[in-house]
What does this fold into?
Amino acid sequence: MTDQIDPPDLPDLSAGLSREQATALRESFDPEQQERIRTTVADLLDLLGKRHAMAVLSAFAFAEGSLRFSDLESDLDIAPNTLSTRLGELTEAGLLDREAYDEVPPRVEYTPTAKARSLFPVFAHLHHWAIEHEL
It folds into this structure.
């Protein structure tokens, strides 16, 4: 998805949008752009819906800087093979950068990209929602 959508003047989304505002924003794009947006959202939700993907990204949302594989594994209590798969998928999606260091034992650090950091307010909203509406 290298095509960037040139949006109209986007409203400040920090306070959220009403249903009417969201509908007007969506309709301000031509049909081809609307389809690309729908596909991007669907792809993102498919990725985030995978086991532990949200937990991994949430860890980065509330962390300062890079995280090591071993830190994520112990903090999140995720099996190494599952964590490795999720980190690979998040890296492939452009949400994380991976840096391996030539050391013994091997050290790998992951850093959120600007693309991932732009998702971090979503985690704040979800935590706020959880405080108000515990299931």
